[in-house]
Amino acid sequence: NNFLLEKSNNTLGDVSWVTVSQEFSIHKFQDKIAETVLKRDLSNKYDERKRAAELSQALLQRKKCVLILDDVWKHFRLEEVGICVRVNGCKLILTTRSLDVCRRMGCHEIIKVKPLPERETWELFKETLGHGLALPADIEKIAMSVAKRCAGLPLGTVAMAGSMRGVNDICEWKNVLEELEESASGQRDMEDEVFPLLKLSYDRLKDARLQDCFLYCALYPEDRKIKRDELIIYFIAEGLIDRRKSMQAKLYMGHTLLNKLERACLLESCKNYEGKRYIKMHDLMREMALRVSPRFMVKAGLQLRKIPDEPEWKEDLDKVSLMDNYYIREIPEGTSPRCPNLSTLLFQVNNILRWIPYSFFVHMPALRVLDLSWTGIRDLPESISELESLTALFLQYCSKLKYVPPLGKLRALQMLNLSGTRIKEVPQGMEMLVNLNCLYMEDMGKKLMLPSGILPRLSHLQVLSIGKTKIGVEEVEELKLLEELTCELYELCDLNPFLSQYCKQLRIYHLMVDYYGDHHYSASEDFDYSYDKEVSIEGGEDRVLVPHDVQKLAIGRRHDVNSLCDIVSPSLNKLKECKIYIGAMG
């Protein structure tokens, strides 16, 4: 790919790389082609034939291009996707582990990729160990034998070398070589040869928490780029990161764990077009992870039309992932999997799922993490109220959800995300969630009021992100562990002391203040979360003591002002953006 990119400015035209993966569907593949190659969005178009015609027409308009299809597991008709291959147009290269796929796809030239020669394997091994690293002679001899046991397989070589970084004890090197010799006996094909290498790299983590973090990535669909922050939230919810730490310390620890897995070459680092950091798990790494996790049931991104039948829900299951199956409409009445040990159920991004019966959760008493976000459910079943072991409930952007049953029994709950739902009132029993660390209620269809007296009971809150939900200054001030706050404030007579003093303890804040209560000005509309520290103030005539470290400030006033210093303190050294709106905006 890199070689072709270097040549692309001359004779080849555009070079694009698209991963096909084992979990193939025409619809998903069309989305990938549109996004990666053509920079188009087809998500609002559903007819595959029309989508194929649009893709074909767009590709025909390109005079020259090279399209690399990586990791093709089964043959398919290019015309069904919308890929047109012409002599003077689009050139197609595909990689696959199956010679039959090459033949059935009509490849003109088939090149078998051979294992790396022994010398190149050793160079790759040394490079992964560390640039310029000089090994003692006795260790180097054993290291060369270890590299030789990697059989010229690049992924296995990189994983094995990554697990040996910093090892200077000859006994440890000898032990690894012995384990490789034992595991390699009887292995025949290339895939069977690489798995022992990957498994040994996993075993060498020698840290159960790191291993659990690695295995967690296998719950995502194959070839998925996973947001680091999203994954770290799961690590926190699963108890893989000490809940007694501050939220900032938890995030630092989460990134540290992921960095260690990257350095061990078990995960790959990548970025999106905005430069945000993601991680990715190689498909063979994922397959190895699932092999060593017999208590996982992972059917993520498979385009299922119904949930697995009850016999597939084994009693010893620990984690189940059914995320990203777009065609599951409902869970049949009476469905009640007997999974007494199930701790994690990931059901997010099943957009047309409308209904879950009461019976579904009855035999899941150990459930700790439940993610139903981005589904079409309208009501949560009452049986949710009985999941007393639950530590995290994610319901964000269930845009049709109007009812959440009482939560008073869920006293172990630490994370609750109701953002983007359409609930009309705060769920009953919120005041009983005394272990809650994070509460999210952003983008609600209706402005809610938190009943007085609830917040002081939630004394362990570290993150309170509730958008334009109004809360009182006095109640917020009782939250001594709070680090992140997004809300609209009332009790404005106490505003200046709050803004100037309490905000010092906050790492992130997005605060809206509306003296008039009519939202006729544009200050609050300018509230866009582009900075960690933002304040929006509408109305008021007195000078406001905003936090000294505010980064964005939006102010709406009905009367002219002569100077910004007439409104706020002049010592705003961190201020990056300031907007002032004068007079009625309607």
Automatic annotation (TrEMBL):
Gene3D superfamilies: Helical domain of apoptotic protease-activating factors, P-loop containing nucleotide triphosphate hydrolases, Ribonuclease Inhibitor, Winged helix-like DNA-binding domain superfamily/Winged helix DNA-binding domain. GO terms for molecular function: ADP binding; ATP binding. Residues 15-128 form the NB-ARC domain. Residues 219-289 form the Disease resistance protein winged helix domain. GO terms for biological process: defense response. Keywords: ATP-binding, Leucine-rich repeat, Nucleotide-binding, Plant defense, Repeat. Pfam families: LRR_14, NB-ARC, WHD_DRP. Residues 407-514 form the Disease resistance R13L4/SHOC-2-like LRR domain. It comes from the Eukaryota. Belongs to the disease resistance NB-LRR family. This is Uncharacterized protein. It comes from Davidia involucrata.
